[in-house]
Structures are given as C-alpha cells and as structure tokens.
C-alpha cells in the first residue's frame, strides 16, 4: 500500500523541492562567479606587475617587493626567445594570456605578456594559487551553507504557511464528519467553507453529494416501508382465501358428503383458487410496473389503444356496449401495455363491480398538450367518500362485494404515476361514474 501524507506535509515538501531547484541553480552560478572573480583579481595583480617588469625587469622586481606586490612572485623574462632574467622557479615558455600551471607540484596562476617594442620582450609572471583556491573554497562553502539554510527555511515556512492554507479543508473535513454522525440528516446544516476558492467549490460538491445521499436514503427507507406494508397486506389478502380452501379440503377429506354438498364445496374451492390466481397475477403486474424504466417508454397511439380495449371488453363481456370518442391523432410517449392495462381494468371494474351495460371510452388532447382519457359507465357508481381510497392497494369499495383482488384500480393509479400523470374519479355522463387519466405531454426518447 502506498503511504499517504497530509496536505500540509505535501505543501511543505513542494516548497522545499522548489527551493532546492532555485537554490541549486543560484548556487552553481554563484560558485562559478566566485571562482571567476578570484581569478580575475589575481590576473589584475599580475597585470600590474607585468607592465612594470616590461620596462626594466631587475629594477621592477625590487620595486614590487618594496610595495608588497613582489612576494612569492615568479618572474621569467625572455628577449628574442632567450631567458634574460628569472626568479625561482623559472616559468616555462607559455602562450600569451593567463592560465593555471603546476610547477613542482604547486599550482601557479601565470600571466604571459609581450612588449610592443621591436625588442620582442616576453614576460611570464606567476603567483602561487593555493591561497586563492583556499579563499575560493571557503567562499563556496559559505554559499553552500547558505543554500542549505535557505532550503530548510523554505520547508519551515512552507509548513507554517501551509497550515493556514489547508485550514479551510480541515474545517470542511470536520464538518462532513460531524454531519455524518448527526442523528437527523434532514436537520443538519450544509457544510460551508470560505476564504479559499477550491475549498468553496469542494464544499458545493460535498453538499450536492450529501443531498443525493440523503435523497437516496429517504427513497430507500420509503421503498422498504412500502415493501413491508405491501408484503403484510398481500399476506393478509392471500391468507383469507387459502384458509377457506384449507377448510374446504378438510371437509372433503373428513366428512361423508352427498353429491350436491360435494359440488358446492368444490365450487367454493374453485372460487378461492381463482381469487388467489387473480391476486397473484395483479401482484405480478404491480411488481412489473415498479421495475419499468424511462427507456421502456415508446411512441404510443392512445386512440388505437382505446379502440382495441373497447372491442376486447365487448368480446369478454357480451352484455357490455362500449362507444369510442377519440381524436384522430393522439400519439404520446408511454407504455402501451401499461395504458392498455389501465383501460382494461377500468372497463372490467365497470361491469364486475358497477353492473354497467354501457360504457364510453374517450380520449382528447387539451390545449396545454395533456391527453385526457376517460371511461364513463352507466353502472351503480361509486360513493364520493371512496373515490380517493379505491386507488389504494387491496382496498375494496362498498359496492365491490367479495370478488376481485382489490388491485385493479391500484394498477390504474400506478400507470398514471409511471406516465407522470394522475388518475381520479369524477361524476359520469351516463349515470354511473367517470374514471379520468390525465397524461401530461412527454418528449420522445
């Protein structure tokens, strides 16, 4: 695993690294400048001495000794290539200019000049370079020491200043930690940071993320609560017919019944089995609807869908007459099977629970783009107090009797929600009740 460091340590390390680069470059330039400057000073001294020696070598050497410039000087004078004067050690014949030469194991700084007179006198003058080298080394050590101090100071200042720089991040971290431990996320204040642009942006991103997490947690909690309630009610609804079926089976097994009694119990068993099947099928359709995603919505012709549902209803319920009133062009983005299921359930409820013999299926587009789909019937109607409750799962109205699963209108309400609309009951035009599906306009995917 890679070792992690605090942001403050990283800032201090970055400051030290930057100081190393800058100080190293400055030190290299300074070291080179010190060496060159010391050599230039020696060359200047040698230049002064050489100009005096070119005039009269013997007198010049004595004079330089008197003024302090002749100490440790080595002078070699050549006229026409022959040595006419020399002081130990004798300097070799060298090209004009200054250079460092080693004589007898001792480094000398040597300057060779020539006279402009026709005599062609050449003077080589040297001085031991050890003192100059020692001075240069000493100055360079001072420079290197200063460089190390500068690097250490940069790291220390980086550490101190980084504390203030990362303080908003530290505060933000503490706020997030405190908020995560807060017992009620809805009552917790959003995190905040000020003074540093990056910290403010990070606080915004953290708040957005926390809002999404809180929303997801709330949705998950609501879904779990709904699932628990749904499972409890479903178990209750299925337990009643299953208990009745078990009782009938016990009667058939233990009692000696005549043919009429046996037929009655078998018919009751069949009714219970049909009720269980109906409930399970409705539960399956509800679960399938809950799993639908936006990408499953496609272009749907509502007028054609209503026409098909009406013809199928009249085929299943021969005593029912269904009229159709729809606009010619009613295409929307939706779930064809879901909308068809809603219309089928509405017509089936009209016949089974309202005793309807006539129904009107209408669909029109309003000026605001909403498609309003209605199912009117001439049945017994629905009490106004129950018009909102019948859309709940397993709720049976007062006129529903014992048949059905109590999930038909819950499926209708689910499809309305899936289409981002709503379902409700209104007064009918045929004497019964009117089921209304209000579907808002939706862009195709």
TrEMBL record:
Determine the domain of life of the protein's source.
Bacteria
List UniProt keywords, sorted A-Z. Kinase, Membrane, Phosphoprotein, Transferase, Transmembrane, Transmembrane helix, Two-component regulatory system
> Histidine kinase domain spans which residues?
233-443
Bilayer-crossing residues are: 12-31, 52-71, 142-166
User: Would I find Nuclease among this entry's keywords?
Assistant: no
Q: Name one Pfam family in it.
A: HisKA
Localization, per the record, is: Cell membrane
Residues of the HAMP domain: 163-218
> Which top class of enzyme applies to this chain?
transferase
Task: List the catalysed reactions.
Answer: ATP + protein L-histidine = ADP + protein N-phospho-L-histidine
Instruction: Write one Gene Ontology MF term.
Output: kinase activity
Record-listed E.C. numbers: 2.7.13.3
Name of the protein in question: histidine kinase
Starting at the broadest rank, the lineage of the source organism is: Bacteria, Bacillati, Actinomycetota, Actinomycetes, Mycobacteriales
